[in-house]
Amino acid sequence: MSKGNVREAALDVLLKVEKNQAYSHLLLNDTINKNQLSPKDTGLFTELVYGTIQHKKKLDFYISPFVKKPLSKLDDWVRILLELTVYQTVFLDRIPERAAFFEAVQIAKKRGHKGISGMVNGVLRSMQREGIPDPKEIKDPIVRLSVETSHPEWLVERWTDQYGFEKTKDICEANLIHPKQTARVNGTKATVEEVFKMLEEDGVEAEKSTVVPEAFTAVKGVLSKTRAFKEGYIAIQDESSMLVAHALGAVEGERVLDACAAPGGKSTHIAETMNGKGEVESLDIHKHKVSLIEEQAGRLDLNNIKARVMDAREAKDHFEHESFDRILVDAPCSGLGVIKRKPDLKWTKTQEDVKRLASIQADILRNVWPLLKQGGTLVYSTCTIDREENDNVIEDFLKGESYANGDHNLYSRLPENVQKQMTEKDKVQIFPGDFDTDGFFISAITKG
Ligand SMILES: C[S@@+](CC[C@H](N)C(=O)[O-])C[C@H]1O[C@@H](n2cnc3c(N)ncnc32)[C@H](O)[C@@H]1O
Questions:
Q1: Residue 364 Cβ < 6 Å to ligand 1
Q2: Could you confirm whether 383 is annotated as catalytic?
Q3: ipTM over 0.85
């Protein structure tokens, strides 16, 4: 594919993502596979799409003074083409300005009329001549942080109310850092050392995690292309997600319910911690996602996972009362802890979503609770960092259920680094800047 076509493909993806027609990561993979992009083009294409979404607000701040009307009045494709081009010139060193400008004008000519390509050219040339504005000059600290780190103002305000301004600044800045490529070793098949040898043969340079014992970061190479991945020796997963199986603490022979399980990252990890012995019942409301759990379990050679389509809110009608030793509710959530991986979330999620999700989370918890044995453990986790979906859901649940208590042993089941982060023994909020991982909330409750 030529560079121009890569940029045009990026523009198409950005338009669809903005219109909420698809998630960026799915559309990105789809375009890469359909067009059989080379590794080099894949790199540029991915960078253009994620970078433009990630820095959208700052890019608009740079562009607005040079456009006569409000940016919202431009055709969407014209505004996105400008954002995409300015992203390349301001954030990427390796792309010469003249090449980026030339391609932008060619795309504008192809998609619009002469007036539009002239306008695009004019805006870009004026920016080049006059220089871009500096967000540091914005007086209001919330607006300044929102522009500097490209987050919606409502989110910066909300996090400031919940965690204070300095912590919010940390979160916003951490959200701009490229996510690491991390994975865990499938302990039922090999040791970390054995897997490192296999990876080396495939040109992957790996470093042990400082957070999770069975985890590592690939600093060079592509994990999904290795024999270790294809033959089920590793599973690609963020380290904070891996903490959840530790928090649950399942052991051989137990019966575990994973109420919201697809695509199966945690179900398979739990099955590994049980050494493949015992039962994991993995539910998901979406039929197409249940097959992903089966695929993962198959690849990792784990035979003790039973995946089925089910609304967790109805699970108590399908399983025997108090029949599970442990239950995981890795709830559907706003995903505000994984913005560095899925930057479109910061532009698509709203406060209404947070409220709606908190009510679903509470419903799921209430409905799976009767299935937990006396003395059993339930772990509630989310990949968000919003109190309304995390602490508040758990506090309300504990108030409403007389046999539910915070499980203070959670503390001892988590790695030392994480323990240091904990201010309470039965729950922990991990922020994206804490360990260079996704943001995650993990809490544990016991029955009896
Ligand atoms: C955070 S994701 C789970 C990720 C999974 N635990 C993993 O580690 O791979 C939440 C999942 O809950 C599913 N879900 C949403 N509402 C549900 C419900 N009422 N019952 C069961 N699953 C639900 C979604 O389809 C989604 O796959």
A1: yes
A2: yes
A3: yes
List pLDDT tens digits, range 194-207: 999 999 999 999 99
Question: What pLDDT does 364 receive?
Answer: 98
Q: What CATH superfamily classification does 182-236 receive?
A: Sun protein; domain 3 (3.30.70.1170)
Look at residue 414 and tell me whether its pLDDT is greater than 80: yes
pLDDT bracket for residue 2 (50, 70, 90): low
Give the nearest ligand 1 atom to 283 CA. 21
Q: Which CATH superfamily is domain 3-134 in?
A: NusB-like (1.10.940.10)
- pLDDT at residue 4, rounded to an integer: 58
Q: What is the pLDDT of residues 232-247, one digit of tens each?
A: 999 999 999 999 999 9
Strands 372-382 and 324-330: parallel
Q: Is 261 in the pocket of ligand 1 (CB under 6 A)?
A: yes
Q: Which numbered atom of ligand 1 lies nearest the CA of 286?
A: 25
Instruction: Look at residue 3 in the predicted model and tell me its pLDDT.
Output: 59
Cβ 289 under 6 angstroms from ligand 1: yes
Task: Detail the residues annotated as belonging to a binding site.
Answer: 260-266, 284, 311, 330
Instruction: Give the distance (Å) from ligand 1 centre to CA of residue 255.
Output: 19
pLDDT band at 418 (very low <50, low <70, confident <90, very high): very high
Domain residues of the chain, as ranges? Answer: 3-134, 143-174, 182-236, 240-447
Confidence of residue 1 (pLDDT cuts 50, 70, 90): low
- Percentage of the chain beyond pLDDT 70 is 99
The correct CATH number of 240-447 out of 1.10.357.10, 3.40.47.10, 3.30.390.10, 3.40.50.150 is 3.40.50.150
Rounded to a whole number of angstroms, the CA Rg of the chain reads: 24
Q: For residue 107, which phi and psi values (nearest 5 degrees)?
A: -65, -40
